[in-house]
């Protein structure tokens, strides 16, 4: 009888825990949908905590419920971007790192690889050179990395207070999750994949605060993911 009662208690506890987890998952999905569709951030700390702890179950449940497979990663990125935005802006650009994925480069790219990633020659065949040049102009350290091992090494070898990442949904969310203490900001690729991916250059420059220093004056083509931007000179 005693063992039977113990097993019943254990069984009931497991069921209760499972129900609580499912409820938490549904809450995150609901709050995430509100964020995505209405741009309203509700209980951000809860969203971050639950989505970090229950990342894999959340992705599984969202797919089973018929949502986009990238929804949980998008929620994670959007929440951290909003929560960290004000603190991020107060950090000196010289204490920030910008990580760009090597998959952004052109198929005919001749950049060499060293211990810090790709060494961009700014040939103009892809968006990497433009972003790198403008980010460095306002104080950022920029690295074009082929994988997470490079990110970890670079972060170990450099002094910094914050970072900006450009990547696909899952890679960006996990990077921001793993380095949450560094007030991360992220920009999603507009075209994902492993080769010749794309990013909205305008969004990257806006995220790193380039337009706070060089205000936008002209957008050549609103339908182009790599927007042309005419720089204004800073008046001394």
Provide tags for this entry.
four-stranded parallel beta sheet; two-stranded antiparallel sheet; 9 helices; 236 residues; 50% helix; single chain; elongated; alpha/beta
Any overview of this molecule?
There is one protein chain. The protein is an alpha/beta fold. It has 9 helices and 6 strands. The strands form 2 sheets. It has a 4-stranded parallel β-sheet with strand order 4-1-5-6, sandwiched between helices. It has a two-stranded antiparallel sheet with strand order 2-3. Strand 2 and strand 3 form a beta hairpin. Helix 1 crosses helix 4. The termini are far apart.
Which helices and strands appear, and what pairs or packs with what?
Blueprint: H1 2-38, H2 44-53, H3 55-64, H4 71-90, E1 96-101, E2 112-114, E3 117-119, H5 128-137, E4 141-145, H6 148-157, E5 162-167, H7 169-178, E6 185-188, H8 201-207, H9 210-213
Parallel strand pairs: 1-4, 1-5, 5-6
Antiparallel strand pairs: 2-3
Helix pairs in contact: 1-2, 1-4, 2-4, 4-7
């Amino acid at each position: 009888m005693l063992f039977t009662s113990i097993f019943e208690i254990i069984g009931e506890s497991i069921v209760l825990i499972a129900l609580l987890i499912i409820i938490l998952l549904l809450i995150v999905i609901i709050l995430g949908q509100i964020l995505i569709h209405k741009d309203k951030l509700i209980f951000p700390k809860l969203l971050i905590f639950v989505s970090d702890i229950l990342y894999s179950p959340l992705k599984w449940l969202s797919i089973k419920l018929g949502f986009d497979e990238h929804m949980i990663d998008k929620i994670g990125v959007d929440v951290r971007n909003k929560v960290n935005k004000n603190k991020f802006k107060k950090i000196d650009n010289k204490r920030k790192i910008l990580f760009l994925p090597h998959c952004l480069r052109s198929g005919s790219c001749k950049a060499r690889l060293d211990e810090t990633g790709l060494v961009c020659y700014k040939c103009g065949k892809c968006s990497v050179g433009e972003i790198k040049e403008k980010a460095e102009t306002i104080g950022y350290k920029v690295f074009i990395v082929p994988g997470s091992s490079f990110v970890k090494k670079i972060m170990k070898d450099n002094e910094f207070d914050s970072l900006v990442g450009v990547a696909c949904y899952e890679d960006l969310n996990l990077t921001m999750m793993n380095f949450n203490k560094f007030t991360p900001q992220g920009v999603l690729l507009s075209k994902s994949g492993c080769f010749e991916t794309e990013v909205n250059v305008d969004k990257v420059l806006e995220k790193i605060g380039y337009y706070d220093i060089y205000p936008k004056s002209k957008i050549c083509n609103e339908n182009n993911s790599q927007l042309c931007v005419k720089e204004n000179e800073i008046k001394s």
